[in-house]
Inverse folding.
């Protein structure tokens, strides 16, 4: 079946540094990928929609200069957390839509997530 | 707007007990409804889905019926196993792309 991978699975960094997280669709092309953030004991919060070949669309309240998204190819989107702070520590999950002929057949596949810890 | 409300956990059950996790939704259109499961240390996996009213999604012994009249999509399983211990998320999507998730319900099944 379709697989979406994320790298790294865990990262620990110092406050003030930048961290890049990769999201890849392994056996299908995805013109659109999504980045979510999951807080402890809370649901996934959509951060942004990553569009191949164009700028990402950010949800209200998400700082686009802090969370840089680049969708360089049909199988790769990257999220860079710039100047990370402890409050950025979270579980980041990406997803990609394997498009079908209509919304009744297409399926969203989620990556395994990346645990970011900022010291 | 779109939103999903699901029962808060954690839920602890004995093996072979009956499981119900309630989920209700608010949507402006006619969304598809989903249950995702997240096992410890893993990402989200689609458990089941229903795309229109009265549809029943089922997988691995789990079932959920799309009830338009009550705007609900409750998850049920007749006999849970220890391996079902996970966090369960109810979600909706009206475009097939953007998803709206509930807060998740943690289930622990004890032998």
């Amino acid at each position: 079946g379709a697989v979406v991978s994320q790298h790294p699975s865990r990262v620990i960094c110092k406050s003030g540094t930048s961290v890049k997280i990769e999201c890849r669709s392994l056996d299908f092309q995805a013109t659109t990928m999504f980045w979510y953030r999951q807080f402890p004991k809370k649901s996934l919060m959509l951060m942004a929609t990553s569009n191949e070949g164009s700028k990402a669309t950010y949800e209200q309240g998400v700082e686009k200069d802090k969370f840089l998204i680049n969708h360089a190819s049909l199988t790769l989107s990257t999220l860079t957390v710039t100047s990370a702070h402890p409050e950025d520590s979270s579980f980041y999950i990406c997803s990609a839509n394997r498009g079908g002929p209509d919304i009744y057949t297409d399926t969203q596949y989620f990556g395994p997530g990346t645990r970011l810890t900022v010291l | 707007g779109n939103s999903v409300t699901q029962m808060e956990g954690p839920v602890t059950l004995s093996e072979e007990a009956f499981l119900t996790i309630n989920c209700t939704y608010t949507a402006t259109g006619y969304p598809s409804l989903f249950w995702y499961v997240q096992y410890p240390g893993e990402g989200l996996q689609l458990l089941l889905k229903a795309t229109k009213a009265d549809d029943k999604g089922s997988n691995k012994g789990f079932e959920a019926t799309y009830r338009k009249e009550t705007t609900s999509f409750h998850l049920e399983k007749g006999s849970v196993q220890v391996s079902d211990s996970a966090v369960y998320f109810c979600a909706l999507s009206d475009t097939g792309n953007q998803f709206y998730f509930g807060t998740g319900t943690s289930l622990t099944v004890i032998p």
Residues 5 and 49 of chain A are 17 Å apart (CA to CA). Chain A has a mean pLDDT of 87. The longest strand of chain A covers residues 90-98.
